[in-house]
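Reading a protein record of the kind used here takes only a little practice. Think of the row as the fold of the chain written in a discrete alphabet. With that in mind, consider the following protein and its fold in token form:
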Amino acid sequence: MIEKTSGIVLHHFSYGETSVIAKIFTREAGLQSFIVPGVRKAKARIKQNIFQPLTIVDMVIYRKERDGLQHIREITNPEPWQSIPYDITKTSIAIFLAEILSGVLKESDTSTAMFDFVKESLVFLDQAEGRIADFHLVFLLQLSGHLGFSPRNNFNEYCCFFNLAEGLYQTVYYGPEICLDKELSQQFTKLSKCGFGDLEGIHLKPEHRKTLLHKTIDYYRFHLEGLKEIKSHHVLESVLH
């Protein structure tokens, strides 16, 4: 079956002598794996650079109903990024987001709302001219809602310790392995209520930003079984701090 769809490239790897396999988050069918023959040849019809992480693509595909490798008939990048590839902070954020999305999305998942959220978030990042140091934290917290484990909004003067395993604020602090302290919990609840348009008003200390990133990744691990180790946040931390 031939279909048209939009997609967000997550990553690709070499296959055989001249081919690649690309993981692409499609709007209609969720995460799909595509084999692209001959793309590494000098005169390839489809150029390999279109499969850079988080490239937005329009595709005509040969869709198989059963699981397995899909095939691309046509692929274009209708709106190339204007700043993400050339700004080291934005590039580092994009690499981190691509790794997160590769880890949390499954090939059985389909959500047009999640696709639209990711695409709109990337467009905002590309166009942003102000503060973006906390973009990744706001993105992770909003993405958690699409994945089904958004933090409960119950912070108050008594329930002031966020429990990573339970996903809510509690009156008892069970230690740093499972809870955020009061100061971090207060910052966490503010971030969870923010949109990208609020980034200018967020002023985290570098050490708090780093800790909140680690703890938010831990929060994902508590709620997503089998999530692989996230590595690119180390590069992101070095750029942001």
